[in-house]
Design a protein that fits this description.
single chain; 137 residues; 4 helices; 0% strand
């Protein structure tokens, strides 16, 4: 049988199969091109982030924290945690020593503060009890 153009039906079916193959091949080509572009962009971002990390390691606490936060945001990590690590990495050893001493002393001072507040409450309760007893008597 022939179609409207006068070509046999087998030629029309063969053309449809060829067009379908061509379309599938083109889609595979597009996917491969998109993947290659994504890989290229990812490589460029990783290089830029590497340079950013080098600068963060060489700079002070605040710039280091900011650069590491930006780097983490670009990589999809927690920028807050990276900013803290960047700030600590940019500190001098004296500042790090003060930070560690503060972290050690803080719980001790909190316990002392709690004891002082408890003692103040006990003294207040004794004073109120004494006043109440002297007013009755």
């Amino acid at each position: 049988m022939a179609d409207r153009s006068g070509a046999p039906a087998e030629v029309g079916e063969g053309m449809a199969v060829a067009m379908e193959r061509l379309e599938n091949s083109l889609w595979r080509l597009v996917r491969a091109a998109v993947e290659a572009c994504a890989q290229l962009i990812s490589t460029k971002i990783e290089r830029g982030v590497g340079k950013l990390a080098e600068r963060a390691d060489k700079s002070g606490a605040v710039p280091g924290a900011a650069l590491r936060a930006v780097r983490a945001a670009l990589l999809g990590k927690s920028p807050v945690w990276e900013a803290i690590k960047g700030a600590i990495a940019g500190m001098s050893w004296q500042t790090k020593l003060i930070l560690v001493a503060g972290m050690i002393l803080l719980p001790i001072l909190l316990v002392v503060l709690g004891v002082v507040l408890l003692l103040a409450l006990i003294v207040r309760a004794v004073v109120l009890a004494f006043r109440a007893a002297t007013q009755r008597g």
